[in-house]
Amino acid sequence: MAETDSPMLRLASASPRRRELLASIGLLAEVRPVDVDETPLAGESAGAYVLRLARRKAQVGAVGTRLPTLGSDTAVVLDGRILGKPVSRGHAREMLEALSGRVHEVMTAVAVSGPQGMLDTCVVTRVAMRPIESHEIDAYWATGEPADKAGGYAIQGRAAIFVERLEGSHSAVVGLPLFETARLLARQGVSCWSAGAPS
Ligand SMILES: Cc1cn([C@H]2C[C@H](O)[C@@H](COP(=O)(O)OP(=O)(O)OP(=O)(O)O)O2)c(=O)[nH]c1=O
């Protein structure tokens, strides 16, 4: 196998968006999803929650490899409340009705375990949505997009037409803040400019 085909990091995530975002900045990842308990702790803030999960995913995912390992977690937060992923059509409707015409926050934490230990960061993005019509919520559900997405929407898909303004990181809303991720990875010896594995 050519050196350029060697993974540069391990990605402890089942999210195809995260793998694609890393690939978009030249980072080839070995994908190893992990299963961690995503129940929030009593009284835990949304920021503390996503950071804890990102660290946990990186820690569990790093077992058995010398590659730096990245874990991440994204939460959609409205009035301090985490919305999670919709479990049904009705749940997705409730979420989009709540987000309609409002500003909410998307919190994405990234943690990278590697030679420098565990490094992490949390990026908060403010997203303003225009009012969403009831028939649009039905039509949107029918696209299949909301099902596996925090908050029941995908900004990289059809929900882009609901997003009036965004302050922060677009890539963080999709699943990985690329600016901050590249910085964390560089500190762990993974460069976006080197085609092969880190030395
Ligand atoms: C708000 C929003 C979320 N999402 C996605 C990003 C994440 O994949 C998902 C949030 O769930 P996460 O629990 O962060 O990630 P995941 O379950 O998909 O993958 P893993 O835990 O294995 O890393 O929602 C979008 O794709 N677009 C959006 O606009």
From TrEMBL:
GO cellular component, one term: cytoplasm
Subcellular location(s) of the protein: Cytoplasm
This protein's name: dTTP/UTP pyrophosphatase
One example of a Gene Ontology biological process annotation: nucleotide metabolic process
InterPro entries (UniProt xref): ITPase-like_fam (IPR029001), Maf-like (IPR003697)
Record's catalysed reaction(s): dTTP + H2O = dTMP + diphosphate + H(+); UTP + H2O = UMP + diphosphate + H(+)
UniProt KW Hydrolase keyword: yes
Chief location: cytoplasm
Enzyme class: hydrolase
Keywords linked to the UniProt accession: Cytoplasm, Hydrolase, Nucleotide metabolism
Record family assignment: Belongs to the Maf family. YhdE subfamily.
Function text: Nucleoside triphosphate pyrophosphatase that hydrolyzes dTTP and UTP. May have a dual role in cell division arrest and in preventing the incorporation of modified nucleotides into cellular nucleic acids.
EC number(s) per entry: 3.6.1.9
Cofactor or coenzyme needed: a divalent metal cation
CDD domains for this protein: Maf (cd00555)
Site positions for Important for substrate specificity: R17, T74, Q156
Molecular-function annotations in GO: dTTP diphosphatase activity; UTP diphosphatase activity
Organism (species): Modicisalibacter ilicicola DSM 19980
UniProt keyword Hydrolase present: yes
Family annotation (Gene3D superfamilies): 3.90.950.10
Record: active site: D73 (proton acceptor)
Organism ancestry: Bacteria, Pseudomonadati, Pseudomonadota, Gammaproteobacteria, Oceanospirillales
